[in-house]
Amino acid sequence: MTREPECLASSRYAGSAPTDPPWETPADNDSYPAAVLVLPPGDFAAYLFDCDGTIVDSMPLHYLAWRQAVAEWGCEFDEDLFYAWGGRPVAEIITDLNTRHGLAMPIAAVDERREALYRETLPKVTAVPEVLQHIEAAHGRIPFAVVSGGARDSVTASLTTLGLLDRFDIMVCAEDYIKPKPDPEAFLLAASRLGVPPESCLVFEDTEMGIQAATAAGMASVRVISRASPSV
């Protein structure tokens, strides 16, 4: 699987302007617990966090749920493709899988099954440690928002499992906006609800579409490189 080159977090310097490349953290599984997520310089008035793959190290578990759910309809979902499509709406993913494989999987049924399978794995979910460090360090000092492409009940379940739900002032989830990432609508809505100008927000994201959305919103961003899912 092709991944962004691994490197020391402290060596990935870019300007704090929203149009500059986002800051990143390494993906090396062996050194991951010791990773440090270096933020761009500047005084930010709010932090906006994606959920899956950013706050919650859930992408490997989501992949297993997706793979089993679509397999029950005779569909294969390649792991590389799953990560390449990270951040896309569920309905779009199922529609495109149908097109690729000549199937007619019902969107609602597959989505419900996928979510049920993911919920079964929640006891195994963990937080992304270097993001958690910044959540704990800045909590109570500036407002936080979760800005996710996931459904509110799913995001709430993940954050509740980790004991992090009360850290966030607001949640902007799939039900709250029309245009998904890379459109900036979700991030702009979060900034508006927090009462913070977009240019004063820092976005934490793990997908390219999320970074594009942050940039389009006029916000600085920091890229969290997701771990590859384990062999199963």
Structural overview:
The chain is α/β, with parallel strands linked by helices and 232 residues long. The protein has eight helices and six strands. The protein folds into two domains: 16-58 and 125-224, Rossmann fold; 59-122, DNA polymerase, domain 1 (Orthogonal Bundle), CATH 1.10.150.240. It has helices spanning 59-71, 79-84, 90-101, 107-120, 129-138, 152-161, 185-194, 208-216, and strands at 23-25, 46-49, 144-147, 170-172, 201-205, 220-224. The chain has a six-stranded parallel β-sheet with strand order 1-6-5-2-3-4, with helices on both faces. It is globular and about 50 Å long. The two termini are 15 Å apart.
Which spans of ≥5 residues are poorly predicted at pLDDT below 50?
1-34, 228-232
CATH superfamily of the largest domain: HAD superfamily/HAD-like
Question: Strand pairing plus helix content: what structural class?
Answer: alpha/beta
Q: How do the helices and strands follow one another from N- to C-terminus? A: EEHHHHHEHEHEHE
Q: What composes the largest sheet?
A: 6 strands, parallel
Number of strands: 6
CATH class of the largest domain: Alpha Beta
Structural domains: how many? 2
Give the SSE map.
Layout: E1 23-25, E2 46-49, H1 59-71, H2 79-84, H3 90-101, H4 107-120, H5 129-138, E3 144-147, H6 152-161, E4 170-172, H7 185-194, E5 201-205, H8 208-216, E6 220-224
Parallel strand pairs: 1-6, 2-3, 2-5, 3-4, 5-6
